[in-house]
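tool_call: predict_structure(chain=1)
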Amino acid sequence: MLIRYKNNYEKIAMGLLSFMPDEKDVKNLQQTIQNYETEEDWHLYLWKQEDDFIGAIGIIIKDNMSAVIQHVTVDPSHRNLGIGKQMIDKIIEKYNHKYEVIPEERISKFFHKCIQVDN
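tool_result:
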């Protein structure tokens, strides 16, 4: 289930985002979380399965036209189970009516693999 990020999920979100190569640096990671908390066009969602948060997906709304997926991460112990695809599907479902949902370059290959499965 996709859940909108709240400040009290900060440590969970930081832990999940730290699995992404560009977010390994603590200062970088803290800035990313701060952007999700303060920038109105940045939206972070956590994926909850049973009682655990096991994934995160983040988007930026660009020019009020595109929802750009910039983060997709899943706890390593839950990878290869389709969680990333489920998160992308939910973001497309949530935003596709108003925005073109597109991936940032670094996750483009994964994004297109996920949406190809549907076709």
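agent: The first strand starts at residue 2 and ends at 4. Proceeding to next step.
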